[in-house]
């Protein structure tokens, strides 16, 4: 790998931000600063530079980026308004590269008229591409969704508590299907552990130029295979429930519960093949990074 020492800022100190920080520090090649809404004494005590920022002020963000001489900004903040301010600050501070808080499905596979935060940020990045290089990392579902306590137990503020699709603790599965009378579990999901996502992100910092998207995954499974792996690891049959597409749509309109909404929307995206990432170009580019399989991931915990 070709390398030259530069500075990376990660916006967001917890959740995926922690994994990426660890992976970048493990390379020993980059200076790192973490931007956070609050001081992070635990990180500072571990020798990591943290700067508290007011994300509502473009000038305040730009000031920190300029002072820290940041070359690359990685955002893990799932909020469009905040990310648009960070992008504007990157332009003011002449930051070279930006990674938006994607790390999930491929933008190309999202619906054409998608009002999500991610698409809003993606559109803005396309507008400013001549001044700010950017890439989206696509990785499918985090395997940590299936660890005890789910992704929230890994430090995220997100919705996943380890009961989505598979409730491995209680040996239950709830899967989306197209039709109630033909409940085929043939939708495909790609999965990558957050630790492997972070390793690929850290390796990508060494690339001299970035394509607009970089794809990776640790495993690619149909839902019936996902269930088989979980049942194998737990050595028990799971109680299976299916939820047909029309019922998912109906419930999305009806429920006001945030977590239920996110679960249903993710199921809808799975049925629309949005979690089937396609060609894993990052795995091919960095063959020394051997991402964990779903079976080995589950074996670590269960
Ligand atoms: N592929 C998957 O299955 C999957 C699953 C979950 C998430 N993701 C993706 O991974 C990325 C990170 O997710 P995450 O769960 O780690 O995120 P998160 O826990 O919700 O937020 C990460 C960090 O961002 C900062 N933050 C959060 N909300 C903010 C706000 N409104 N304003 C300013 N800062 C805010 C916080 O840092 P400070 O407290 O230090 O400010 C927080 O620790 C996102 O792009 C998300 O889409 C993917």
Gist?
With 302 residues, the chain is of the alpha/beta class. The chain is 37% helix and 18% strand.
Describe this entry's structure for a reader:
- Residues 7-147 form the NmrA-like domain.
- One of its GO terms (molecular function) is oxidoreductase activity.
- This is NmrA-like domain-containing protein.
- The protein has 302 residues and is of the alpha/beta class.
- It folds into two domains: 7-134, Rossmann fold, CATH 3.40.50; 141-191 and 219-301, UDP-galactose 4-epimerase, domain 1, CATH 3.90.25.
- The protein is 37% helix and 18% strand.
- The chain contains eleven helices and 14 strands.
- It has a six-stranded parallel sheet with strand order 3-2-1-4-5-6, with helices on both faces. Strands 8-11-13 form a three-stranded mixed sheet. The chain has a three-stranded mixed sheet with strand order 9-10-14.
- Helix 5 links the parallel strand 5 (97-99) and strand 6.
- Helix 4 (80-92) runs parallel beside helix 5.
- The longest helix is centred in the C-terminal third of the chain and has 14 residues, at 258-271.
- The model has no long low-confidence stretch (mean pLDDT 95).
- The structure holds NADP nicotinamide-adenine-dinucleotide phosphate.
- The site of NADP nicotinamide-adenine-dinucleotide phosphate has 27 residues, from helix 1 and strand 8.
One letter per element, helices H and strands E, the order comes to EHEHEHEHEHEEEEEEHEEHEHHHH
How much of the polypeptide forms β-strand, as a percent range?
A: 15-25%
Which fold name corresponds to the CATH topology of the largest domain? UDP-galactose 4-epimerase, domain 1
Ligand species: NADP nicotinamide-adenine-dinucleotide phosphate
| Mean pLDDT value | 95
CATH architecture of the largest domain: Alpha-Beta Complex
Q: Considering DSSP H and I runs of 4 or more, what fraction of the residues is helical?
A: 25-40%
Total of DSSP H or I helical runs spanning 4+ residues: 11
Poorly predicted ranges (pLDDT <50, ≥5 residues)?
A: none
CATH superfamily of the largest domain: UDP-galactose 4-epimerase, domain 1
**How does the overall form come out from the CA principal axes?**
globular
């Amino acid at each position: 790998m070709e390398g030259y020492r530069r500075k990376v800022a990660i916006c967001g100190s917890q959740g995926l931000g922690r994994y990426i920080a660890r992976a970048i520090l493990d390379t020993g090649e980059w200076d790192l600063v973490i931007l956070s809404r609050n001081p992070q004494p635990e990180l500072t005590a571990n020798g990591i530079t943290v700067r508290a920022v007011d994300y509502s002020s473009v000038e305040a963000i730009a000031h920190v980026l300029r002072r820290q001489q940041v070359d690359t900004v990685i955002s893990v903040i799932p909020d469009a308004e905040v990310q648009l301010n960070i992008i504007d600050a990157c332009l003011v501070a002449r930051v070279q590269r930006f990674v938006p808080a994607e790390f999930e499905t491929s933008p190309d596979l999202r619906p054409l008229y998608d009002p999500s935060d991610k698409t809003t940020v993606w559109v803005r990045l396309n507008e400013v591409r001549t001044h700010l290089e950017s890439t989206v990392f696509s990785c499918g579902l985090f395997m940590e969704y299936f660890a005890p306590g789910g992704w929230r137990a890994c430090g995220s503020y997100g919705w996943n508590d380890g009961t989505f699709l598979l409730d491995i603790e209680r040996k239950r599965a709830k899967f989306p299907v197209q039709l109630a009378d033909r409940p085929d579990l043939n939708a495909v999901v790609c999965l990558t552990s957050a630790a492997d996502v972070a390793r690929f992100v850290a390796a990508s910092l060494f690339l001299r130029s970035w394509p607009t998207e970089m794809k990776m995954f640790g495993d690619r499974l149909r839902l019936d295979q996902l269930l088989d792996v979980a049942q194998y690891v737990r050595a028990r049959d799971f109680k299976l429930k299916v939820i047909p597409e029309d019922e998912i749509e109906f419930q999305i309109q009806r429920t006001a519960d945030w977590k239920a909404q996110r679960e249903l929307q993710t199921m809808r995206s799975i049925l629309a093949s949005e979690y089937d990432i396609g060609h894993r170009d990052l795995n091919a580019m960095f063959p020394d990074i051997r991402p964990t399989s779903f079976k080995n991931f589950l074996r670590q915990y269960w």
